[in-house]
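Re-run with default settings, no changes from the original entry. Doing this only to confirm the output is reproducible before filing.
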Amino acid sequence: MSYLYKASNTLIRRLAVEVNVREALRRRRCLRLFNGRLPLLLPDEPTLSAVQWTSRRIRFVWVEKRSWRERIPEQDCEEDEIEFDAYQTKEARGVVSFDCNLVSGDAALLIQRLPSGNKYLEQKTKFETELGRFIDTAELDEFRISGGIRRIDETSGIRKRSTEFQTQQGSRIVLTSKSRKLDAYGDPTVRDARRAVGNHAVGRLGNFYFPSSDADAPDTHVKLYAQDQRVGIFGECSEDEVRHVLSTIRSHCN
């Protein structure tokens, strides 16, 4: 999941100077992390593990151990009229990063998908606080993606699985395709319904498939959540592909 930002020119100039970044890390006794490799350890709490810097880009990376319970219904059993539901505890590495382009000022907080039930907005607030130990986060303007949902919905070449709109009176309109492989507006009745909506409602949720920057790769599944201005990118994607998708989203939100 991603939250987008725009860094001020003041912050960009400060972070583009290596000595400034090193000094910010030194004050927090983290200088060893400068351009370091990510460790293999899984700390119980989120831990800043690397700060990767060039004059064109900076990236803070936190690592944590994530544990969750996964339901195993085939292992359920019953004993003396007592039923036992089976779960398996699983652990995996969780990665959160803040990435800032020191030329354009485009920045993003990327939170690796959390186990079900976790709240991304709480995680966003927590890692903004962590980031604030090293940079002035007041120099980051949060990028609102809600305005781009309707524009992307109107853009050709992006497959629309589902779009939810909200009217001024608070009513909801949801237009959804028959399957994830089909564009909702391939159905003429849905197209007519969308024309009726026009510009009288705002986008609340967009479920889209963006064409990959690699012609041979599958489309990238993206969800845009207006409620907390969050971008969800699903499936296995390279870092370059994530940046390509986020750049495309930004272009529709301006």
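The chain has two domains: 2-142, 146-253. Residues 146-253 form one domain.
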